[in-house]
Amino acid sequence: MSLFELERNAEFEELVTYLEESSNTDIRRRAAEILGGLASEVTKSRFPREDIVNPLIATAQNDDDDEVRAAAIDALDQYGQDALEQFIGEVSGQDVENVAKWKKAQILAKGLNADRPELRMAAATGLGRIGEDNVVEHLVKRLSDPDPRVRKRVARALGRIGSPEPVPALSQRLHEDRYGIRVEAAYALADIGTNNALRELVDVAEADDERLRRIAVDALGRLGSVEAVEVLAESLQDEAEVVRRTAMFSLVELLSEAPSDASHKIREKIVGELEQVNEAQVEQPLIDLLEKSTETAQRRNAAWLLGRVTSEQYREEAQETLIDTLADDDEMTSKFAATSLSMLDGGSLEERLLELVEDRHRDEGARVKALFVLGKIGGEESRKRISGFVDRTESDRLRKRGFSALSKLGGAGAPSGDFA
Q1: For 347, which DSSP code?
Q2: Mean per-residue pLDDT of the chain
Q3: Does Ion transport count among this protein's keywords (predicted)?
Q4: Is the separation of the CB atoms in 243 and 210 below 8 Å?
Q5: Could you tell me what percentage of the chain is helix, strand and coil, using 3-state DSSP and rounding each to the nearest 5?
Q6: Rounded to an integer, what distance in angstroms lies between the CA atom of residue 167 and that of residue 204?
Q7: Closest CA to 116 of 69, 76, 155
Q8: Rounded to whole angstroms, how far apart are CA atoms 96 and 82?
Q9: CB 213 within 8 A of CB 235
Q10: Do residues 91 and 118 lie in contact, with contact meaning Cβ atoms separated by under 8 Å?
């Protein structure tokens, strides 16, 4: 069974076996990453949590490969502060778990100077989780740690704490360090979110270095603020395709990160900015994102945006992608797809939706959503065919939605409502 299948099925025992026994470093590293990513699934399974944490601790201490050990520490982070502290306690010989928070922060701050880089990495990660401002100075000093794995996790910890003091030091890392650390520094600046941090990311988004522009544009999607929208919209016209596509991903991500009290304002701002950008730089990336992304929040927002920014040139392709999305496993994504389709009437959309409704081999949820859209855009042909369909179908759910659509089309039907 592949690692992908083990991840999909949350096969913890086999993943631990790969982590402990595989001779391939890439497989061990990936197994650690997957185990970390599945931390929230452990409580839903019967697999003992300690039977995952203990092998991760052993891997973080003893694996022959630097990146495998680093991945194991990051995985322990996903299992919570107590898992990190168990690792730190075993390596340092100090009891970190049963002390007051302020004392714990002191112990971890001392761990930043440990000889073993894995202990420095874990100490930085733990300090980021504790979130005490009084350790920021200690962390900033470790931004110059000789081990890049430590610098990366120090930058991440500073972003978690969110204090504004490290902005200059993080800005320096953004310009001078290796790629992976630059990314973490940019994310930390976005998480800190002060005017100075935002200004630094905006400046870098206009840098000559294509890699720097992409990093800044990627990080701006985490801000959830109106201020980032204009910068990202401008980046949709960047000369580099990778920057343009990253800007689109960030705009979609920004919709997810927006605070609830600013969500409507940010959505209006994004739609307004996208309407002024060349459609090829907006609509095709959105279609690609909806077709290829595995991130639920991204797909929801891409489906929502397509109904509001798609031009005549891309209408048919957007319609086809949205029709396919009607059967999405995520109910909200499929609802957004249906709503967007109702805003993109034209061409052969009505006929394609009728064919979907009448195809008994297609997903029932998709057929329900298609009937909803037909109730919005359908004409006489829809009224006739849906009338015959509700007489034939054996599905109560489809019949109910069919009557609801007919009520909107002037035929005999029930009062309309939301999706059945």
Answers
A1: T
A2: 91
A3: no
A4: yes
A5: 75, 0, 25
A6: 14
A7: 69
A8: 9
A9: yes
A10: yes
Cβ–Cβ under 8 Å, residues 198 and 223: yes
Among 38-47, 60-69, 121-130, 377-386, name the one with the lowest average pLDDT.
38-47
pLDDT for 414 beyond 70? no
- Give CA separation, 249 vs 200, 219, 292, 302, 410, in Å: 20, 11, 12, 9, 41
DSSP for 20-70? Answer: HH-S-HHHHHHHHHHHHHTGGGGGGSSS-THHHHHHHHHHHHH-S-HHHHH
Average pLDDT rounded to a whole number, residues 283-292: 91
Please count the residues of the chain.
420
How many CA atoms lie less than 13 Å away from 352 in the CB half-sphere?
16
CATH number of the domain at 318-420, out of 3.40.50.1400, 1.10.1740.10, 1.25.10.10, 1.10.150.530? Answer: 1.25.10.10
For the segment 158-216, what is each residue's pLDDT rounded down to a tens digit? 999 999 999 999 999 999 889 999 999 999 999 999 999 999 999 999 999 999 999 99
Please give the share of the chain, as a percent, with pLDDT higher than 90. 75
Q: Mean pLDDT throughout 18-47?
A: 94
Strand, helix or coil for residue 260: coil
